[in-house]
């Protein structure tokens, strides 16, 4: 008999997501038996996960959603953690020069915290982030052009890559869908990765903004190796044991 019936909804959903990482699907009957709850309870869990963009419900269960997801969906996921990361990252902004922000939702939250500064340059390939950036007389606020990916609300492709590489940045702030000890920063889309790589090459410093759900996780496309990253920012206390595998690889904040 299952002893998991006392698990709360948040814990059940975390376990379901862990299953999906390994099997790509979950069955209602099996999940209900494992947790010691009704199938209706599991169905509600899957409905919530679908609203958050993690799963796609099918007859008898759900399947993992793969590939890029809408900005609004990504922005709603782990919101408190991302806000904590953005608050930390504000302290890493350069006093002068320029910064680049990728199309990640965490970088979008950082954009909202930027102080408008004359003589400063801010570039991004995210239309949503561009609209959120503060303006100041004498500040250069640049939306990297190219092919619009309407799903992610970002600009990608050869023109976007060329434009991203046309400027110099003190710091590039980027997200990642996976942060793996062996493979480094990973993401779901080759087109997005190519723009990130151009931003990174043009920047003096690269800072990765990743909530703890991305740690020790792999995804479809390799973006940057550890030698190309200067700082990893998470919502965790830097001494948290979850960060132990990364201590010898990068500075952690």
Please give the structural blueprint.
Elements: H1 9-23, E1 25-27, H2 28-35, H3 39-51, E2 55-58, E3 61-64, H4 71-76, H5 79-90, E4 98-101, H6 105-113, E5 121-124, H7 127-132, E6 140-143, E7 147-149, E8 154-156, H8 158-164, E9 169-175, E10 178-180, E11 184-187, H9 190-201, E12 203-209, E13 221-224, E14 231-233, E15 251-252
Parallel strand pairs: 4-5, 4-9, 5-6, 9-12, 12-14, 14-15
Antiparallel strand pairs: 1-3, 2-3, 7-8, 10-11, 11-13
Helix pairs in contact: 2-3, 5-6, 8-9
Give your account of this protein's structure.
By secondary structure, this protein is of the alpha/beta class. It has two domains: 9-64, Arc Repressor Mutant, subunit A (Orthogonal Bundle), CATH 1.10.10; 73-252, Rossmann fold. Helices cover 35% and strands 23% of the residues. It has nine helices and 15 strands. It has helices at residues 9-23, 28-35, 39-51, 71-76, 79-90, 105-113, 127-132, 158-164, 190-201; strands at residues 25-27, 55-58, 61-64, 98-101, 121-124, 140-143, 147-149, 154-156, 169-175, 178-180, 184-187, 203-209, 221-224, 231-233, 251-252. The strands form four sheets. Strands 6-5-4-9-12-14-15 form a seven-stranded parallel β-sheet, with helices on both faces. Strand 4, helix 6 and strand 5 form a beta-alpha-beta unit. The protein is elongated. The N and C termini lie far apart (43 Å). Mean pLDDT is 85; it is low at 1-5.
């Amino acid at each position: 008999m299952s002893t998991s019936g006392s698990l709360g909804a948040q814990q059940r959903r975390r376990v379901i997501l862990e299953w999906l990482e390994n099997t790509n699907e979950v069955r209602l009957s099996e999940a209900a038996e494992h947790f010691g709850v009704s199938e209706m309870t599991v169905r509600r869990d899957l409905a919530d996960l679908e609203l958050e963009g993690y799963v796609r419900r099918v007859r008898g269960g759900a399947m993992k959603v793969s590939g890029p997801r809408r900005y609004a969906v990504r922005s709603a996921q782990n919101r408190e953690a991302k806000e904590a990361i953005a608050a930390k990252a504000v302290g890493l902004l350069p006093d002068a020069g320029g910064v680049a922000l990728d199309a990640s939702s965490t970088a979008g939250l950082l954009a909202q915290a930027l102080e408008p500064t004359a003589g400063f340059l801010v570039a991004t390939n995210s239309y949503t982030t561009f609209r959120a950036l503060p303006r100041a007389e004498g500040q250069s606020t640049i939306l990297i052009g190219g092919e619009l990916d309407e799903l992610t609300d970002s600009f990608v492709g050869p023109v976007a890559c060329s434009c991203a590489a046309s400027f110099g940045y003190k710091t590039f702030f980027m997200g990642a869908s996976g942060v793996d000890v062996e493979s480094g920063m990973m993401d779901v889309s080759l087109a997005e990765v190519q723009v990130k790589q151009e931003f990174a090459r043009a920047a003096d410093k690269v800072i990765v903004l990743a909530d703890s759900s991305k740690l020790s996780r792999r995804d479809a496309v390799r973006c940057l190796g550890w030698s190309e990253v200067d700082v990893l920012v998470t919502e965790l206390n830097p001494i948290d044991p979850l960060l132990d595998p990364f201590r010898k690889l990068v500075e952690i904040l």
